[in-house]
## 1
Amino acid sequence: MFQSMRKSAMRLVLIQAAAGILAGAFAGLMFGSAAGAAAISGAGIGLAGSLFMVAGLLRVRTDATPGQMLARVLAGEAVKWAVTAAGFAVCSAGLDMHFLGLLGGFVATLLGYWAGLLPAVLGEAVRPPVPSAR
């Protein structure tokens, strides 16, 4: 179960990274290099939050109770929100980035996250048994 969880988590992060790169390239080509850089930065914010979340989840022991696992998920989500808020604060105020590009890159990583979850939702993890031919 934990190997499958690790594989799924890494797939999520890779899909998010690809979505962010595509968003940055699209924004750069369509709206200029400033928008492209902002989109890549927004994708980086989304990716950083996900990496913190995944790192927390991957540190769960194999003998953890459901309550301990839930505590890890909640702690990971809290850190993810904090990293996201800090990233937006720094990029919006400190670096004076193009906000729509920043938001577009972040949204691309969110879409990548949901696209990465689709196989699990559609039943990749639980396959029905194949009946034997008699």
Note: DSSP finds four helices and no strands in the chain.
## 2
Amino acid sequence: MATQNPFDMSALFANFDPQAIAKQLQEGFSGTSVPGIDTNSLVETQRKNMELLMSTNQAMLAGSQALIQRQAGMLQEAIAEVTNAAKSLSTSGNPGEVSAKQIELLQKAFEKALANSNEISSMIRETQDTVTNKVNSRIAESLQELKETVAKVK
């Protein structure tokens, strides 16, 4: 019996088709003309914008899934470490040894938490940078396309 992955959110976007939306826009503009404006250019610009929306959503989804999976891995690692720490502490009878081991375990736990925090921050930053770069690039292209379309109006 196969179970569905609870972190797989691709079903949310299964029916989203930027090509179909662009086609609907094109059909909506067919027969409509604005003197001096190429409606096909406007439709093409919107198609590209929809593709950007889809690709950025996919990038965010992939980043979120990777983040969730890594956090689950971190939790499993932490559980294993706590189990090992409990075994280690239970074998020591000397109070001085127990105290020294506790301090050592606390130091390691703090360092691990800091490293995990940095890793999570890095994963989030990489996803944000990817999406931001795509959006910034598309905005620049869209403005250029708009400028070219307006320049054709006489």
Note: The chain has one domain: 40-152.
## 3
Amino acid sequence: MKDILNKFTFRSIFVSLCLTALGVIIILNANEILFWVIKGIGVFLLIDAIIRFIQFLRLDSDEKSINFDIIRAILETIIGIIAIVNSSSVVTLLYIFIGVIVITEGLLHLQFVLTRKSSINNWILNFLIALINILCGVFIIAHPILTSELINIIIGIEIIVSSVLGIFSYIYLFINLKKAAKDNEEENI
């Protein structure tokens, strides 16, 4: 049992160290990683399109007439090629779409606050939150690449913090397991 726990502890520490390194890499290369993720999604879409196309070819003529896999394959091929060839445009469009959603949510919140301000406690705070939401959406649309960098940096920091905490907890666990094993050996003597 002791060997299994030691292996688990050292393996867990190793994984946490690898995650820490990943967090640092994400922080230092935020844009490149996001672009590679988009390119990876593009490759996945192309592979899925090929599979759908092959499956479509295997259908009999009656099934082909009601199956839409060929259309999905064509769309996935187009989106996959765009993602691979021009990942920066895909990232920009993605963040513009997110910005539009954030602005829409902010405007809906603002409308609700203004129409119900007489029945809402602290309506000014809710009003300010709605304005901040709208401003965040505008920022996301105006600076999509900077937004992606900031999000990746936050993700990298979170990975580093959680993995460092994991390392400390595994070291603490290892020390306590060693102490418990030593105490157990002394009791058996």
Note: The two ends are 19 Å apart (CA to CA).
## 4
Amino acid sequence: MSNEKTIKEEDGIKAIAAALKAGGTLLNVACPNCNYPLIKIDEKIYCKICNQEVYIYRDESDLPKEYKQALKQKTKINSEDTEVEKTIKGKIEDLRKKLEKSVDTDEIVKLSEAIDKLSQTLKKMKEE
């Protein structure tokens, strides 16, 4: 797979060079997918590595209506906790309440470790 990626990059770099020779303009903006520079050809912007057209907007108000709706939907989905995340948060809160009342050193350590492990699990889930 690494070899396929290298070949794709080499082909893309050759395509960038060809587009520049044909009058394209290299931009100081990188592709959001591969991080290679974008090229402007006849008022359109392309990533020759990914072999796709790229649209650049200054802010969300410039986006077409369907893109705005897609962004809102994606944000809505990502902002909602799954049932597992809700359960973990509830357990963390339960443990926090027990920790608040505890005076036993061993129990404090155990509760702290449990809260830490649950917090790490929650963090890993959010990263995925």
Note: The chain is about 60% helix and 15% strand.
